[in-house]
Amino acid sequence: MSEINMTPLIDVMLVLLVIFMLTAPLLTSSLKLELPQAEGTTPQEPAPQSVRLDLSASGEVFVDDEAVALEALAARLEPLRGGDTQVHLRADKAVPYGRVAEVLGVLQKAELHRVAFMADPVGAQQGVSGAGRGASAAP
Predict the structure, then answer these.
(1) What is the Cα 131 distance to its own chain's centre?
(2) pLDDT for position 116
(3) How far, in Å, CA of 78 to CA of 73, rounded?
(4) Which residues contact 36 (CB under 8 A, 6 or more apart)?
(5) What angle do CA 111, 37, 94 make, to 5 degrees?
(6) One digit per residue, pLDDT tens: the chain, 139 residues?
(7) Which of 35, 91, 29 lies closest to 65, judged by CA?
(8) Alpha-carbon distance 9 to 72, whole Å?
């Protein structure tokens, strides 16, 4: 009676698992933004306790790729109130500063004071920024 050798199947499964574990963090953001360029920006790894806030060119607000109305943003950030959470603010360069100021006001009311403004380094390729691009302009 012949039996199926499971070793090659397990090897293939483990290789696929490693591939998915390596590529999943690279696919975290589907929102494309054209970030402003600034000197002195350095690539930054997300903090262990961080939230990404994106402002699209049309003025929409996204929290970790989930669209949120500005009126509902405070409720969405309520669980993070007063904690040590770092906010990575990525705003398209076409977004008016007034809209950015409104979002900063909501962050202050939510007692989230660690805000990093994300920008592309000067000389970086012009185009839209995805998940893997963007550098912090904050220390």
Answers:
(1) 6
(2) 85
(3) 9
(4) 91, 93, 119, 120
(5) 70
(6) 688 889 999 999 999 999 988 887 766 655 666 666 667 666 666 656 888 899 988 888 998 888 999 888 888 888 888 778 888 888 888 888 888 889 999 988 888 888 888 877 777 665 444 444 455 544 4
(7) 29
(8) 48
Predicted confidence at residue 16, as pLDDT, reads 95
Alpha-carbon gap, residue 133 to 15, rounded angstroms:
27
**What are the backbone dihedrals phi and psi of residue 34, each rounded to the nearest 5 degrees, phi first?**
-100, 95
Instruction: Give the integer Cα–Cα distance in Å for 125 and 35.
Output: 11
The amino acid at 1: M
Token pair for 83? 């904690």
Q: How far apart are CA 134 and CA 36, in angstroms?
A: 9
Residue given tokens 């199926």 in the structure block: 4
Cα separation, 124 vs 40, whole angstroms: 12
Among all chains, which residue has been given the structure tokens 């691009």? 133
**Quick one: how many helices (H) and strands (E) in the chain?**
3, 8
Going by C-alpha positions, the residue among 119, 68, 67 that lies closest to residue 93 is 119
